[in-house]
Amino acid sequence: MSSTSRRLHITLSHYRTAFFSKMNYIVGAIVLLLSFTADARVGNSSEPTSYCTETPECLLFDLTCKGEEYEVRHYEATKWVTTDVESMFKDLAKIKGFRKLYKYITGENEAGVNIDMTAPVILKVKEEIPLLKKSVYSLSFLLPSAYQKQAPQPTDSTVYFTDMPDTTIYVKSFGGWSVSAVATIYANKLKEALDKAGATYNTDYHYDVGYNSPMKLMNRHNEVWYEAKGAPVCPPVE
């Protein structure tokens, strides 16, 4: 082999080695990224909190900061199953919506499969609802991790899928039963705290959030959520 051919062979070998090394790095990075994100949104109920214990899986989050008035959480994108109910009374809308979604997870879907219940259950509530006027309430169940990428289609045309984007949430927690009047009081308390802190948030709607079944009588946990807009503002630490 001539010296020119030898140099060409060495050069080609070098580029081949560099190419495959780079490809292995890219593939490894993708696999590593998927390993971090595959189970990061919905997972074991013991991971995120001590109060999400009644279902096999719960919505996971990263706690950004926490104070007496509220806490700030970061949630990754998730898929939910949702239904809308028009009603003059929020509590009645919640009951009707729950029945529809419960039928979906107990077999009323195109695959005829039972799907595990998760927590929390969230109710989207529009702001500034006139007294004794109907409003549309959207109730959602979080889909388990096994169905986050693909879930069986509902057989009820009023049940559909929604995607919650990667988002930051302002949260206020409270105990007891989350009846309409009580949830409204805590939503107003959270708004007052956010306004006092100079935080910006979505004022078109908020979420009433529940973690417990009707069978649990003590140590219940509820929340109200407002979506943050812009950089989140942490509460003062007391």
TrEMBL record:
It is found in: Cytoplasm. One of its GO terms (molecular function) is heme binding. Transmembrane segments: none annotated. It holds the Pfam family SOUL. Keywords: Cytoplasm. GO terms for cellular component: cytoplasm. Belongs to the HEBP family. May bind free porphyrinogens that may be present in the cell and thus facilitate removal of these potentially toxic compound. Binds with a high affinity to one molecule of heme or porphyrins. It binds metalloporphyrins, free porphyrins and N-methylprotoporphyrin with similar affinities. Monomer. This is Heme-binding protein 1.
